[in-house]
Amino acid sequence: MLLLLLLDREQFRVARSGFCKSATPEEEARCGWGQFKDKEKLSIHTLTGHSGKVLAAKFLGSAFLVTGSHDRTLKIWDLKNRSCTETKFAGSSCNDLVTTDSFSFISGHVDKKIRFWDVRTADCTANDIPLQGKITSLDLSKDGKFLLSCVRDDTINLLDLRQNRIVRTFRNDNFKVGCDWSRVAFSPSSSRIAAGSADGSVYIWNINGPLETVLKDPNGSGAAVTAVSWHPFSSTLASVDRAKKCTIWSNA
């Protein structure tokens, strides 16, 4: 198994197998790797090349990676040679990206645009899709037909990639996007979506439009929820907030 570990600034690490190798004591403490000191650890490669923070990294097929940075570029990396093979100039800081196949990916940017790319061509492959605020994150449906975008105007947009247009917008008077990198996520079946709010709540919508539920820990800090992630085989949901707290929601 390969893992991607985003570091604080201009580099990221690629990790293979089950545990971590070459982590500093601080990294082990932060990520919980210290418990594996006496066991086999990961082989980690650090890939450096961006001049700004790396906000997104995804596998592009089995042999390549694509990364998005606040240096306004997207880079393609060869895993075997551990080197950058191509730099695409987006013209705007990238907050997130998704890959659709071994050649294509989609990026979301601070300039309020979604961009479409193909590694076989130099420029964007389709017209940009402009939204009404900074794009904080993207997520792709299980069948690859729909794209979610979380936007700083406190909305979540559902795009039909077959038509390249917005088909539904999710909003609520109390839902506020808490930061520029707030993450949205499809459920495993792609029938629901989840996103964290600035008040510490997690909002869950049915993909057909209605708000299903709002989750909030009565003993929580009230800090903005910055990311959510569904369990791949159940309705369990994890959320993390700016107070460095992770909450597990069963039967969300």
TrEMBL record:
One GO biological process term: autophagosome assembly
Gene Ontology CC annotations of this record: Atg12-Atg5-Atg16 complex; autophagosome membrane; phagophore assembly site membrane
WD repeats: 47-87, 105-127, 184-208
Family annotation (SMART domains): WD40
Highest taxon in the source lineage: Eukaryota
Residues spanning the signal sequence: none
Residues forming coiled coils: none
Keywords: Repeat, WD repeat
Membrane-crossing segments per the record: none
InterPro entries with a match to the protein in the record: ATG16, WD40/YVTN_repeat-like_dom_sf, WD40_PAC1, WD40_repeat_CS, WD40_repeat_dom_sf, WD40_rpt
Repeat as UniProt keyword: yes
MF terms in GO: protein-membrane adaptor activity
Stored SUPFAM superfamilies: WD40 repeat-like
Protein name, UniProt field: WD_REPEATS_REGION domain-containing protein
